Amino acid sequence: MKNKAENRFIPMTSIDSGIGQQVISDLYYFPFQIVNVVFYGQPGEGNDWVLIDAGMPRSGDNIIKEAEERFGKNNPPKALILTHGHFDHIGGITELIEKWKMPVYAHELELPFLQGEQDYPEPDPTVEGGLLAKISPYYPNEAIVVEGDLRALPMDGSVPFMEGWKWIHTPGHTQGHVSLYRESDGALIAGDAFVTVKQESLYKVFTQEQEISGPPRYLTPDWEAARTSVEKLASLHPTIAITGHGRPMEGETLRENLQMLVEKFDEIAIPDYGKFVDGKKD
Ligand SMILES: [Zn+2]
Ligand SMILES: [Zn+2]
């Protein structure tokens, strides 16, 4: 099979799985198994909308069903914007493209991983963390081939079909990772630049206990870039953040937690040991 990343069913879930929630009138997040996708657009039959990320392998049908409830049947998104190309953010992409035929946008540095040209580093099961990290070799890291209209995000920082939003390059977790930010109300879609659940821990992922964390450890190869990316996002003072994993965080809680993550990045985010840090950390 060509796209291993999306053909493998990963039997992992959380108590929030399948229960979507509106966080701002035009922002809705849909957790499925252990990852979130985001719908941007005012709800209503026939309204324009954009999908951010494409979920776990084989979650396409669930994403389609949820979107149809919010935007009506036969109303494809104007585009799919990818924060990055990890298997848990592109898993449903083939079903979605087949159904909707929408263009797909990603940062130009992420394109080789979406065109079958370059694989991500293998996940690190030895990293400090927990059970989810230990079973991470089960996660596919191979590049996939997006069979569709794949494009680079515009160089001017705008986000197609998302007026008032900017994409921000937030590498570290992957080279071409982006976050999306709307200055008018401080809404942030952070992907895996930081997350609000301890993603290495099977138990915490299941309960979705809120806890600010750096990017998922078992898949993050460049910790210094990851640190700079978190600093960049914290300096925007977002009012609400939807992250790739965990529940949205907002207001004072978000401000304090982001500040803490910046100040204690070594402690909170960077693992004490693991193949992506060995020999690199003091
Ligand atoms: Zn990721
Ligand atoms: Zn992820």
TrEMBL record:
The keyword Hydrolase applies. It holds the Pfam family Lactamase_B. Residues 34-245 form the Metallo-beta-lactamase domain. Gene3D superfamilies: Ribonuclease Z/Hydroxyacylglutathione hydrolase-like. One of its GO terms (molecular function) is hydrolase activity. Keywords: Hydrolase. This is MBL fold metallo-hydrolase. It comes from Neobacillus notoginsengisoli.
